Amino acid sequence: MSKIGVLALQGAFREHKRLFEMLGAETVLVKLPEHLEGIDGLVIPGGESTAIGRLLREYALVEPIRRLAVEGMPVMGTCAGMIVLAKEIVGAPEPHLALMDIRVNRNSFGRQRESFETDLDIPAIGAPAFPAVFIRAPHVESVGAGVDVLARYEDRIVACREGQFLALSFHPELTDDTRLHNYFLEMVAARQQLQP
Questions:
Q1: Which terminal residue of the chain has fewer beta carbons within 10 Å of its beta carbon, N or C?
Q2: Rounded to an integer, what distance in angstroms lies between the CA atom of residue 172 and that of residue 29?
Q3: Under a CB-based contact definition with an 8 Å cutoff, are residues 39 and 192 in contact?
Q4: Considering 16, 35, 171, 181, which one is annotated as catalytic?
């Protein structure tokens, strides 16, 4: 059984924990570097990306997460988590974890009151369309050569994958549709099979 860490510094971490447990995965809330021990994958939830980035530095989590990710551990970022994963953030002097070769525009869908839900076609998880919840969401302006675009909303990239990294503009944890969490668990399982 996979053990999934859910970064619990700020944001919708309890909702991610609930969906992974519905799928039978063991979960651990990550607040300190020692909580990373023994995890097979990590989720960076939605919230406020600047606050999450600041707390990652404050709790000395940046380097241990980056090290595990570079060694091959799968990482999923949703909404603010997508921004934290990006190598480039429009209008920001420096990135946070800088793991994914994507350029992200923060709050590109407007303010909280402009939040919305829409059905997204995501071929990687099959039909039917996914009920995507967008709350002050970012989008991906551009991707590097190794990044697969998984979904678009109108002309904007809202889901992509680069190797062991998965980034989503929206909040899959605010629905009862477990397909994207299951997709991430499949990424984790595939990596576990490669390990000696």
A1: C
A2: 18
A3: no
A4: 171
Indicate if the pLDDT at residue 115 is higher than 80.
yes
Over 90: is that where the pLDDT of 114 sits?
no
> What is the C-alpha to C-alpha distance for residues 119 and 131, in angstroms, rounded to an integer?
5
The two tokens of residue 42 are 């990590």
Q: If you search the block for the tokens 């990135």, which residue do you land on?
A: 95
Question: pLDDT for 29-82, tens place per residue?
Answer: 999 999 999 999 999 999 889 899 999 999 999 999 999 999 999 999 999 999
What fold, for 3-194? Answer: Rossmann fold (3.40.50)
Delimit the domains of the chain by residue range: 3-194
pLDDT digits (tens, 9 = 90+) for 185-195: 999 999 988 87
Which of the following is catalytic: 16, 79, 96, 160? 79
- Report residue 30 as tokens: 């990550």
Check if 173 is active-site: yes
Cα separation of 14 and 26, whole Å? 13
Q: Is residue 171 among the annotated active site residues? A: yes
Task: State yes or no: is 58 an active-site residue.
Answer: no
